[in-house]
Amino acid sequence: MVELGKQDIAHVLHPNTILPEHEQFGPFVITAGKGVHLWDSDGREYIDGFAGLWNVLIGYGRDEMADVASEQIRKLSFCSSFAGMSNPPAIHLAAKLAEITQEGVSHFLFTSGGSESNEQAFKLAWRYFHLRGEHRRIKIVSLWQGFHGVTLGAVSASGTSHREGTGPLAPWFLHIPPPCNYGSPAGAEYPGCTGACAEALEDLIAVEGEDTIAAFIMEPVLGAGGLIFPPNEYLRRIRRICDRHGILLITDEVVTGFGRTGRLFGVDHSGVRPDICSLSKGIISGYLPMGAVGITDEVYRGLMTSGKAFMHGLTNTAHPVTCAVALKNIEIILEEDLVSNAARVGSSLLRKLQRLYQYPWVGEVRGLGLLAAVELVTDRQTKERFAPSVRVGDRLRSAAQENGLIVRTIGNVIGLAPPLCLTESESDDLVDRLERAVEALEPLWRVSCSS
Predict the structure, then answer these.
(1) What's the pLDDT tens digit per position in 404-446?
(2) Are residues 280 and 354 in the same domain?
(3) How many structural domains is the chain composed of?
(4) Domain extent for 408
């Protein structure tokens, strides 16, 4: 196993990794997974408190997923989707998505992941307005602290640290402040901030001109930007503003889709219907690369006004193997009622996490479904965070790993997003392990308070 680490350092280029530190300490090599558990190259067991990267909803090691992939590979391993070519798994998957997404979202374009899905969403929005003769509508508005991917358009739309060092970025992407959250500098306090925060979009439209804006994109829950949970009324107000100014609403359901929040889709909490929705992650639970973009009948009819093809396609669009596996994944989610499990066990998990308030360096615990956050602070009254130089998130993540738990940290925020198949007893174990990791931060907190 030591040789594996050496080969990794010598040949694998890791994203989101500080390379000098990686050279020094080497990789964390995972060799096996089953259910909500993972094992490393030394045989140590962990609870995966982050479902891979938000995405392994049905858990690891499902034999039926392997069986479906094997059967489809033997039957038809590849089929282009260009020039009207299709295949049964792609057709069945699109029909299933039309059945379970919001009413009127009826046509789907398949991709290889979330970043690609958002790129396609932007291009579809631009083409829609181009065909309507509204050629000035090219701007895309998004939220600071929102995250939409790492390809050029997606990272330009993002309002997170992923923008750093990746320029030049596309100039036609604009941003407004996110809904107020814990420790927000905004004048209004959550959740009473809904109106003021949404009005930031109206203010931007007034400055830019409604005829220059094609779409507004947001996540129903802001994930990589710090796990911010907007009130339901916020998205409803955004929908009304978009309707008033003829702007398309794109919902990025890459993290929140397929049951993560205790509803099948994040927008289901607010009752809002998007014009375009981006999907990935939970659509296939990480078993293969997969994503999709859904559009409403109205947007589809707009695209139908042209006699020319939409000249944007990917080699692996509607890949028959990934579509077959995604269809099986959705079948498992629905048949095993993992959405209700996420709501029930997620509510229980949130209650159990309340005991972390016994530690004065825990400022807030928040969550929805099997998506939760623990905010770390040096002072609960002032909501002052740990200084970035302290790297409290890295310290916590290491302590969690030592206690057999994998979590993600975003600055001062501990992120939890376990597989949707998590049981009550497994959630007990998860919280026990997390509590030991949080408790280990006491020396760091005392030093930070005294400095």
Answers:
(1) 999 999 999 999 999 999 999 999 999 999 999 999 999 999 9
(2) no
(3) 2
(4) 35-58+337-450
